Amino acid sequence: MNMLNRYFLAGVILLTAVTSLNAQTEPRVRVAIAGMAHGHVNGFLRKDYRSALEVVGIYETNQAVAQKYQARYDLDPSIFTTDLSTLLDEKKPQAVWVFSNTFAHLEVVEACAPRGIHVIVEKPLAVDMASASRMAALAKQHGTYVLTNLETTWYSSLHEAHRISVGEKKLGEITKIVSHFGHKGPAEIGVPPEFFAWLTDPVLNGGGASADFGCYGGDIITWLLGNQRPLSVTATFQTNKPGIYKVVDDNATIILEYPKAQGIIQASWDWPFPRKDVHIYGRSGIIRTIDDSLYDIRLDRGQSPTQKTARSLPESFGDSVEYFAAVLRGEIDPKHSLSSLETNLIAMEIMEAARESAKTGQAVVLSKVRRN
Question: What is residue 5's predicted lDDT score, i.e. its pLDDT?
């Protein structure tokens, strides 16, 4: 081996050692969990989160639910509490990750923001615009984040579709975006009873399938269109299975009018299989995401769609734990991202208008100034 190669190899070894040392010594973000009634807490606890996060406490008032998860994941019983304020004051987490019903998101932000504690909520941001606006005002007043976790934020196919259609403009001007989000229904897929109880409560969830899955489409369409607010929202909600979903909708279609485009949100608890995909139409092409990594693209008239696998996202963007940890460490600015407060406030405004439209049977024209 010549001298130049020896120097190069030594440099690679040194860089690898330094990178490994930094990864090992990087401080973990101190987080608390608020609520365990949301089934997504299972996904979080199954993750290898311990290299990035230190869970310093868990707040849950339902003892049966707390004991279930404590036993399932062999969690230290001493970190559980039924008093959120005491947990925040004694453990001083940097952030709270909320797995409660959606209605409770506001009370967690009200407890955390004045203490300078950031909050991550599971989608959607809130049950209504009044709650979302209050959360945003508290975050602004106290300089804290209120971030929303949506599963599709970590889909490489969606980010590649954004790069191609928005960044590179290969589709030409975007004219229509159609989103499909749903599954057979929470009862049919066997969600835990504490999850089902509030998912089917119009107060605690803000609706049924429309709230559960409509937020995905509102968030993604807003993101793809550069955080534009629609001019109007028209929606139809219905319940196809009233024997199961007695007081909430299980099917929803929402149409968004923009100056030069349309957005269509399809949300359902009455589909034969799960779907989380988006079709983006431009004047010179179409992209259709298929799953978390696959998509197809058709750019020329008469050309058959070409299926592709999206490149993997960078480590800090490919997983909710790594992403939010990087945001909380100040390494990533989340503004205008799929998780940002700005984007999810618009998605919340869309859902509030959709509920009004479904109730009245009329299109709802959004005011020029957002109510927040």
Answer: 41
